[in-house]
Design a protein that fits this description.
The protein has 219 residues and is mainly alpha-helical. It contains 10 helices and 2 strands. Strands 1-2 form a two-stranded antiparallel sheet. The longest helix has 24 residues. It starts with a helix and ends in a 9-residue tail after the last helix.
């Protein structure tokens, strides 16, 4: 524990200062002073130093890679719905976020792999996070984390006509309970990928390794 004390202390301080910035300071668009700017950078600096102090062997031993999808969910089911809520008059933004999100997933697993993460964990993390993206969690979060004033959005709609990615799976706009079932199924699949014993995936991994890669022939 003593060896990991610098990481734990810095991580705790980063969380405290991030809480101060987020909950105690106004969410201003403009930077009003150099002091405020530097103070708001304190959580980032502390978090950077905490990550730099993290012992990779200890992180692997306690399966700290599972924090990656947690970080992704913070982004995807809090910040993304908030962005959509405050930018409803910018329809192109939705497409940009849809494109950005897989990029974020791949960036996370690339950093994990560069840091020595095992190939099978890269696959688990990446496929679990794309399942979470496709699950409909963000659609549900949009309805629950935002302060809607339109009566049509103040309760969960009975039919989710806007969730086209669910519609194409079901062949019709999902009812509220069909959407719940769709979300639950995807979350359970993601959890299975993250927590199932590695030996369960061994036959699939061997099949992938045996699959021959044929060179293209001149036509």
């Amino acid at each position: 524990m003593r060896r990991n004390a610098p990481f734990l202390i810095l991580a705790a301080l980063a969380a405290v200062f991030a809480g101060i910035v987020w909950f105690a300071m106004p969410h201003d668009r403009e930077v009003k002073s150099l002091g405020i700017l530097l103070f708001k950078l304190v959580p980032f600096v502390l978090a950077t130093e905490a990550i730099a102090q993290l012992d990779p062997a200890w992180a692997q031993r306690i399966r700290l890679h599972l924090v990656v999808p947690v970080c992704f969910l913070v982004y995807f089911v809090y910040f993304v719905p908030k962005i959509f809520f405050v930018a409803e008059n910018h329809p192109e933004l939705y497409y940009y976020i849809l494109t950005l999100t897989p990029f974020v997933i791949l960036s996370l697993v690339l950093a994990f792999r560069i840091g020595g993460g095992a190939a099978h964990l890269v696959r688990r993390l990446s496929y679990a996070m794309i399942l979470l993206m496709l699950s409909g969690l963000e659609d549900l979060a949009f309805l629950t984390v935002n302060d809607h004033t339109d009566p049509a959005w103040q309760t969960i709609p009975e039919v989710w006509t806007w969730a086209s990615h669910i519609t194409v799976f079901l062949g019709h706009p999902a009812s509220k309970y069909e959407a719940y079932a769709f979300i639950t199924a995807h979350v359970l699949l993601a959890l299975f990928l993250l927590f199932a014993p590695t030996r369960w995936f061994a036959p699939l991994a061997r099949a992938v390794r045996r699959t021959p890669v044929q060179a293209p022939t001149a036509g």
